[in-house]
Amino acid sequence: MAMNRARWQARLDELRAAHHVPGASLAVLVDGQIHELASGVLHRGTGAEVTTDSVFLTGSVAKVYTATLVMRLVDEGRLELDTPVVEVLPEFATPDPEATKTITIRQLLSHTGGVTNDFTYDSGRGDDCVAKYVEAARGVALDCPPGTAMSYGSLGYVVLARVVEVLTGLTWDQALKDLLFTPLGLEHSMTLPEEALRFRVAMSHLGTPGQDPDPAPAWDLMPRSAGPYGRVIVSAGDAVRFARMHLEGGLGVMSAEAVAAMQRREVDVPDKWTVSADGWGLGWTLYDWDGVPGFGHDGAAIGQYAFLRVVPHTGVAVALLTNGGGARPLYADLFRELLGELAGVRMPDAFGPPAEPPVVDLDPVLGTYRREGVMLTVSRRDDGRAVLRYEFVDGMAHFSPPADLELEPVMENVFAASGAGHAFSEEYMPVVFTTLPEGSRVCYVGMRATPKVA
Predict the structure, then answer these.
(1) What residues contact residue 160 under an 8 Å CB cut-off, 6+ apart?
(2) Are the C-beta atoms of 229 and 129 separated by less than 8 Å?
C-alpha cells in the first residue's frame, strides 16, 4: 500500500504534541521507497526544528549494529558462533571460572550467556576503552547460569565489540564505519559526539509524565565504553536503510545466510510485554503479531527513545526516533496505526491488569533480588497488596532515586507495576517471576533476570 505522506505527517504532529514529545523523526520503507518525516524541535531551549537529516541517540538499537558486525566476521569465516569467548579473548572472565569457560559468542548475541545488563563503567575516552571495560567486568557476577535463560545483557555486547576489535585490528567505532556505514552509504550514522556535531543533533529532554519535558543537564551521560550496547547516533532514514539490508539478503555487505541466522529464534522470553518480544534471535528482538512474524529493537538513552520494526513478508520497515516526553505511548499509538495500514499487522494492546485481577499467592515472590547495578525488594503492604521497590545501586547509584511501584496481578507470576513512568512502559510495567531450570528464583524487570538473594 502506498504511503500518504501528508496524512501521516499530520498524524505524527498530532500524536507527538499529545504525548509531550519535543521532537520526533519517522522513516518508513514501503513498496521499496523510503519516506522520511520530521516533527517538533530538537531542543526546547533553542527552538531548533527537527529535520529529516537530524540525528538522535538510539540507545540499545546499537546492539543490532554490533551483532551485525559480529555476523560479518562469522560470514568471513573469522569467527564461529559456538566458539567459547575465552578462545578469542583469553582476558574475558566472570567470577564463576566454570561458567567463564562455556559462554559462547552465540549466547552473548542472544542474551543467554547469563551476563548482566547494568554494569556501567567509565573506562575513559581513549581507543582502549572497550578493552578496559572487558578487564573491569571480570569481577561482575552473572545474573543466571549460562545457557539457562534469556536475560538482557549489555555487558555481553561490549565483550562482542572487543572480539570485533581483536579480529579486525580496528576500534569498534572504526569497524562500524569501515564494515557497515561506508559500504551501505549511511552518511548520517556515527558513534562519537564529535562526529555528531557535524549534523543537527537532538537534545535529550527529561521531565514529569504528562508535561512538556526540559532539556537534560547533559546531551549524553554514558561513557564511551557504552557505545557497543548503547550509542549509535543516526537519522531515522539511516536506521531504515540499515534495516533494509537485513530485509533484502544483506545487499552484498553480508550473506543472505548470515542475515537469516540473525532473525532465527534462539530463545523464548518469559517477559513478552516490556518490548513486545516473543523471542530473541542473534541481536534482533523477534515479534509475533497474531501470527505475523517481525523483528526489530528498542533503545533508550537517558531522554531519547528509538523504535525500529520490520515486517519481512511485506517489506515494510519503520523507525521512530524521539528526544523525550511520552515516547513509548507515541510509538504505541503511531505504530499500531502505521503497521496496521501498511503491513496488515495488529500490534498487541497495552499491557495492564485485567478488570477482575486474579487472586495469587504472594509468598513465593516476596523477598530481595539483586544484580549488578540494581536491587529489587518485593514486600506486602498492610492491606495485603504487593509493592516493588526498584533501586539503582553500585555504578548506577546516581541514575535516579528509588521508585516504589504497586504490583497488580495479571496472572500467576506476572504483575503490572504502576507508577513506573512513561520511559518504561505505556502505563504499566511488566514484572515477571520465574524459576530457572536449576531451581533458582528470578524476577524479570525490563527483560533482565534479577536473582533472588533473600
Answers:
(1) 66, 67, 70, 105, 108, 109, 228
(2) no
In order, the DSSP letters of 388-411 are EEEEE-GGGTTS---EEEEEEEEE
Q: Over 80: is that where the pLDDT of 423 sits?
A: no
Residue 425 pLDDT greater than 60, yes or no? no
Q: What is the pLDDT of residues 79-135, one digit of tens each?
A: 999 999 999 999 999 999 999 999 999 999 999 999 998 888 999 999 999 999 999
Given phi > 0 = left and psi -120 to 50 = alpha, else beta, which region is 165? alpha
Is 439 buried (19+), middle (13-18) or exposed (0-12) by CB count in 10 A?
A: exposed
Is the separation of the CB atoms in 191 and 171 below 8 Å?
A: no
Residues 6+ apart with CB under 8 A from 384: none
As separate numbers, helices (DSSP H) first and strands (DSSP E) second, the chain gives 14, 21
Contact 184, 241 (CB under 8 A): yes
Residues marked active site are found at 60
**Residue 432 Cα distances to 241, 302, 384, 442, 445, angstroms:** 35, 24, 19, 8, 7
| Mean of pLDDT over the chain | 94
Q: Determine how β-strand 414-418 pairs with β-strand 56-57.
A: unpaired
Q: How many CB atoms lie within 10 A of CB 263?
A: 18
> Quick check: 301 and 231 in contact, CB under 8 A?
yes
The helix-helix angle for 62-75 and 154-168 (nearest 10°) equals: 40
Spatial separation of the C-alpha atoms in residues 103 and 82, rounded to whole Å: 9
- For helices 236-247 and 62-75, the axis angle rounded to 10 degrees is 30
**Chain-centre distance of CA 443, in angstroms?**
19
DSSP per residue, 223-244: -GGGHHHH--EE-HHHHHHHHH
Q: What is the pTM of this model?
A: 0.95
Could you give phi then psi for residue 129, rounded to 5 degrees?
-65, -35
Residues 6+ apart with CB under 8 A from 198: none
Tell me which residue has cell 506486602. 380
Locus of grid cell 549466547: 107
Phi, psi (5° rounding) for residue 95?
-65, -10
- Residues 190-246 have pLDDT tens digits of 999 999 999 999 999 999 888 999 999 999 989 999 999 999 999 999 999 999 999
